[in-house]
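Sat 14:20. Reprocessing the chain from the morning session after the first attempt stalled halfway. Input below, unchanged.
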Amino acid sequence: MSDAMTMLTKTPMPSRDESEISPLERLPQHKLLVGLFLPMQEGAWSPSRAPRSTSWTFDYIARCTIRAEELGFDLAFGLAQWLSKGGYGGEMRFREHEIDPIIANTALAAITKSIVLINTVHILYAWHPLHLAKFGAAIDHISGGRWGVNVVTGYKPSEYRMFGLAPIEHDLRYEMADEFTTIMKRLWADDEDLTFDGRYWKTERAFLAPKPGPRRPFLVNAASSGAGLDYAAKHSDIIFITSPSGADPFKACESLPSHNAKIKSLANGYGRKVKTIINPHVICRPTEKEAKAAYQEILENEDTVAADNFVKTFVSGDTASWRGHSRAQWVIGGNVHLVGTPEQIVDWFIKLQAAGCDGVQVNFFDYLPDLEFFGKEVFPLMKQAGLRS
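Finished this time. Tokens:
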């Protein structure tokens, strides 16, 4: 154990225990939480040229977020990325444009009232814990306690090199993330200066004022590996999970119970409670035939070059997530594909909840019209089914 980690172990933490400072109590007590995966990057999740209105621009994202809040969504989530010119390529230059999620969420905090706003930060790309602690405290105040950070270490060598950094070995990344997050949480909680001589970060007499509100910001992580899940169980409130068996919902619902149970058991080992959320791509239409036709249209209009590059980037790295997904499933996007009528979508939500998922973070292909249909047709059925209070 490093001297810094020994110091953290021996130095008393603030008197508030983890259950008292956990922000999960701020979430609505629905049987199944519902979040929206915002399309902050061009093309969102589908390298397809099928017709749609979806846009990465802030005006469009703001309209999506405000409407999601009006419809009753609990969360809105923004992805972060670092890509070279042309994005993933192809005619559509997939994901070349992206609005930064931490900046966008700060603006969204000022124009929303109840929805929780979560954005990704790649903490190992030259961030210091004091930076994120200070920025996070500010957004927490602007939002009234509705902000959270999805802590990501990054795994793509090309991204590290953009910042003049060498790629970092997988498990070491999570050792670094543990130290980073521990310091950040101390800065949010401690009422005295923090001096920390760490293995990866150092600070002398660092202090943060104002602190976040009565409860610290939400901490989120998406992990599948042993090291990643251990980090998430120790620090995160919400864990974005991936189906170990691909996007087929039948197979997903078979593999998810043990996966969710493992994660929650790890958290219990740290004396903590966590919520797990999965990311379905929802294609919902009045009839099953229409929904399947929409699914097929996305596939038939794939941008082959963009799709090939998109898949290659993820499967060639050392991440443990998404390994069970086929190429066609990558073209659709999302972790689990739910295709059908409103009644069928709700049936799948019931099955996912029974499999141990505490929430769904949905994405769509054509965001505003799909969101509107979902809110008006699916939400009432979820309430009837007891998934929403």
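The chain has 14 helices and twelve strands.
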